[in-house]
C-alpha cells in the first residue's frame, strides 16, 4: 500500500506531473508464484483506466492462463474499460500465416516473431500496457537479445508501460527496469506432494 | 509455470484427487509490490471456474483498489463466470447498520467486525474463494487473534480457498498456510523520487 510519498526528490528537471507520467518497465521475476498473476492483476488497473492492453504469452502451452485470458477478454469486450488483445505463442501467433512458416517454426523462431511484433506495436504505440508474459525465458536462453530489448524499450515513444514476467530475468534488464519485484517461494503445496488444482494453478 | 509434478508423494492416505482438491490457505506477504495484485489475479481464475468469490478489504481507504474492484464487479455481473461480493472496511462494512455503531467504530473494531463476518461466511460456505486483502495487518497489530484465525481456518468446512495478503504476516500463519509467497522489493520508482501513477498504483 504505497503512500505516494517518494523518499527522494530527484534533480532531473522534470515536474512532478512529468515524472509521474513516465512510462514504466516493470519486471516480475523470482522462483515463487504470482509473477504472471500480478501482471494480469495490473492489467485490471489498466483496463479500468480505459487503456488498450496487449498481452503476449511467450509460452508453448496456453494451458495455465485460461482463467486470466477469459476474464480479460470478457472485460475487453464489455465496452466499459480498455480493450484487450491477447496473443499466444502456443497456437502460433495470430499474425503469422498458418502453413506458411508458423507450423514448422521452432520455439526459438516463434519467440523472435513475437518480439518482432512487440517492436512493431511499440513503434506504432498500439497499446498503453504490454504484458510480455514469460518473456524473461527467451532472453535468458539467448533467443532474443537482451541488449536489443533494453535499447528498444529505452527508445519507445509515448507513454507505453511494459510488464515482463519470468523466472530468470537477465541482470541487465533488472538494472534497466523501473520497478522490479522478486517473488520468492516460502512454501508451496507441491513440496508436500500436492498437485496443481483448478482455480488455483489455472 | 508449475509442471504439476510433485517432488514427494505423501503417505497421508488420500487419493491424488482428494489431495488435489484440498482447500488452500494462501499468503502473499513481504515488502514488495504485487501481494494484492496477485490475489486479485487469482480471483480471475476462480471467476473462470464459476466460483462465488468474496473480497474483504481490511484497509481504511479504498483508494488503491478501484481498478480491481470495478473489473471484478463487471466480471461478477457478466453472467459468464462466478459471482463477486466486494466488502470494504473503508466505507464501513455493508452488513453493519450505519448510525448504530458503524460510524463511531474504531478501525480495530471494524477489523474485528470484518473477521466476524468472514467467520460467519466460512461456516455457511458462502464463497469458494475468499480474498482477505491486507488482513495480515490486523493480525500483526493484535486486533484479531492469529491463533483464532488459524483455528477457524483449520476447521472450516468444505473446499473454501482463502488468500490473505499484507506485509507482516505473522509467523504462525506462515507456518500454517499451504502456499506462501514473499514479494521482495528489488527496486521501485519511488526510490528515485517518482510518485505513484494512474493505472500502475491504482
From TrEMBL, chains A, B:
It comes from the Bacteria. This is Cob(I)yrinic acid a,c-diamide adenosyltransferase. Keywords: Transferase. The keyword Zinc-finger does not apply. GO terms for molecular function: ATP binding; corrinoid adenosyltransferase activity. The lineage of its organism: Bacteria, Bacillati, Actinomycetota, Actinomycetes, Kitasatosporales. Residues 1-20 are annotated as: Disordered. The gene is cobO. InterPro entries: CblAdoTrfase_CobA, P-loop_NTPase. GO terms for biological process: cobalamin biosynthetic process. It comes from Streptomyces luteolifulvus. Its EC number is 2.5.1.17. It is an enzyme of class 2 (transferase).
